[in-house]
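Sequence design from tokenized structure. All designs in this work follow the same two-part layout: the structure record, then the generated sequence. An example of the structure record is given first.
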């Protein structure tokens, strides 16, 4: 029988799997503690569990990490890891160092089919969803390489997490679990281009992780032009869903807004954006565009970006103007692409 990768199991799934095989459910917590807390993956060393169960674990599970292809380190210390999956697809995971901790940007799909016109990920159409262990293993593999603990997770790498909803939610359960990776819900963020029905599902998830919405435009005409998803879920539906999300979950939402030179960076759009999101428990993250060779879009000049930001503030909208990381290694936001594939 083909061994299963341990990192694909939530605690609930492991419990029922053990019970189906006539072991005790509570053994699941013991095994989680060994693997995630003590980093012991050799069942022989799991001294507080029975010999037959140790044998069962080594017969059934493997604890392989992802295969590292390359690791690049940028001048600002951002690191990009290229991992090869068992079917030869290559994915990228990006590590950013902040004063508050180490944040890992997770890839959720091989390629992406959302078709945002400015995003490099869309240059490769979606091949498949990442499975649960490939999601969890991006963290485990990077932690093993750097020998430090990841404290923050952003699901903002290649792919649309809400197009791989169930696996991403199981991933969150594993990394947030008290005997799993113990990453706090408030340290986990998921970003979506706006798949409305999933925003409602996400609002009702018991683990209250953060939500970021890739907005990037303040009216339907412009948004549909740059983001295909807007034709399926136009702004009225998206904004209503976000409002409902904040009410159901009691959480604040982040709107991501890339500043694209001459496209969406005029002051009139700052005004339109303020009107669109007024009254929602939200803040706007203004992102400098990282130019992608294949596209014509350019980055807004810093002075103009500053003006846009000031206008939002003047209109009573909380906003931040984000700094760029990792541009010299193509690890910047939205630049993840599978060059080596
Ligand atoms: N599919 C999800 C998550 C991945 S993209 C989403 O759309 O939110 C993560 C963020 O990077 C999104 O806000 C996306 O619009 C943005 N992005 C894409 N390409 C970019 C680029 N070249 N420069 C800056 N941000 C970019």
């Amino acid at each position: 029988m083909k061994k299963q990768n341990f990192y694909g199991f939530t605690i609930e799934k492991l419990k029922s799997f053990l019970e189906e095989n006539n072991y005790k459910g509570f053994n699941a917590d013991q095994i989680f503690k060994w693997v995630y807390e003590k980093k012991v993956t050799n069942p022989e060393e799991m001294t507080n569990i029975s010999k037959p169960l140790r044998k069962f674990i080594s017969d059934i599970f493997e604890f392989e990490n992802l295969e590292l292809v390359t690791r690049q380190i940028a001048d600002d210390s951002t690191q990009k890891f290229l991992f090869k999956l068992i079917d030869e697809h290559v994915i990228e995971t990006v590590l950013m160092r902040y004063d508050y901790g180490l944040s890992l940007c997770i890839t959720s799909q091989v390629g992406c089919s959302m078709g945002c016109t400015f995003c490099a990920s869309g240059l490769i159409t979606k091949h498949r969803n990442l499975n649960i262990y490939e999601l969890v293993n991006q963290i485990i593999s990077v932690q093993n390489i750097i020998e430090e603990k990841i404290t923050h997770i952003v699901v903002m790498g290649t792919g649309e997490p809400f197009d791989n909803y169930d696996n991403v939610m199981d991933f969150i359960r594993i990394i947030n679990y008290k005997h799993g990776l113990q990453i706090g819900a408030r340290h986990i963020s998921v970003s979506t281009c706006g798949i409305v029905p999933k925003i409602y599902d996400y609002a009702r998830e018991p683990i209250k992780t953060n939500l970021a919405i890739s907005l990037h435009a303040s009216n339907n005409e412009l948004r549909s032009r740059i983001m295909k998803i807007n034709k399926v879920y136009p702004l009225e539906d998206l904004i209503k869903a976000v409002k409902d999300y904040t009410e159901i979950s009691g959480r604040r939402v982040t709107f991501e807004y890339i500043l694209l030179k001459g496209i969406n960076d005029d002051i009139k759009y700052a005004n339109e954006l303020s009107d669109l999101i007024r009254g929602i428990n939200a803040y706007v993250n203004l992102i400098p565009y990282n130019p992608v060779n294949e596209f014509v879009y350019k980055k807004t000049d810093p002075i103009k970006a500053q003006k846009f930001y000031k206008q939002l503030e003047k209109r009573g909208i909380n906003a931040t103007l984000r700094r760029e990381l990792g541009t010299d290694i193509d690890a910047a936001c939205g630049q993840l692409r599978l060059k080596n594939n």
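Residues 114, 116, 118-119, 156, 160, 191-193, 214, 256, 258, 287, 289-290, 292, 333-335 surround S-adenosyl-L-homocysteine (CB under 6 Å). We note this feature because it recurs in several other targets discussed in the main text.
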